[in-house]
């Protein structure tokens, strides 16, 4: 049911500056990059084995991520666990009295479905559940 860590997301003030560690010093390749004006964020994905480090750079202080950065500073934002059946996993969360942020899965353009688990229920870490499109 749980497949792997899909990605670990890190909130950064400046993508280029952050890459001086992740890319230049550590030597990770930069995979996909994404400008997401809707979410007011620039994203760089750096593959690590079958998982990825996802660097999130908010480009507006008004966005949810921008506010999070202003309040909490840079650092770990969320960890994403890939599952084969997101509805079943969410039902399992509810059965264990785990608080979800999303009551129903949301969908990305590529068909990936996701939902967040509230940090109150996870020892303080925002957890994202992911079901990739071709896994049904
Ligand atoms: Zn994520």
Topology of this protein?
Layout: E1 2-11, H1 15-25, E2 33-36, E3 41-48, E4 51-58, H2 64-72, E5 75-83, H3 86-95, E6 106-107, E7 113-117, E8 126-131
Parallel strand pairs: 1-4, 5-8
Antiparallel strand pairs: 1-5, 2-3, 3-4, 6-7, 7-8
Strand order of the largest sheet: 2-3-4-1-5-8-7-6
Helix content: 10-25%
Q: What's the Cα radius of gyration?
A: 15 Å
In DSSP terms (H or I, runs of 4 or more residues), the helix count works out at: 3
Tell me what the structure shows.
With 136 residues, the protein is of the alpha+beta class. It has one domain: 2,3-Dihydroxybiphenyl 1,2-Dioxygenase, domain 1, CATH 3.10.180.10. It is 22% helix and 38% strand. It is built from 3 helices and 8 strands, in the order E-H-E-E-E-H-E-H-E-E-E. The protein has an 8-stranded mixed sheet with strand order 2-3-4-1-5-8-7-6. A hairpin with a 2-residue loop joins strand 3 and strand 4. The model has no long low-confidence stretch (mean pLDDT 94). The site of zinc ion (ZN) has 6 residues, from strand 1 and strand 5. Zinc ion binds next to strand 1 and strand 5.
């Amino acid at each position: 049911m749980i497949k792997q860590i899909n990605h670990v997301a890190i909130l950064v003030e400046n993508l280029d500056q952050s890459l001086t560690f992740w890319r230049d010093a550590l030597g990770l390749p930069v995979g996909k990059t994404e400008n997401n004006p809707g979410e007011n964020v620039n994203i760089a994905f750096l593959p690590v084995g079958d998982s990825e480090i996802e660097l999130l750079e908010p480009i507006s202080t008004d966005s949810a991520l921008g506010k999070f950065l202003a309040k909490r500073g840079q650092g770990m934002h969320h960890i994403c666990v890939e599952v084969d059946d997101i509805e079943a996993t969410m039902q399992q969360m509810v059965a264990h009295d785990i608080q979800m942020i999303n009551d129903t899965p949301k969908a990305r353009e590529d068909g990936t479905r996701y939902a967040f688990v509230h940090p109150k229920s996870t020892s303080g870490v925002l957890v994202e559940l992911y079901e990739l499109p071709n896994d049904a």
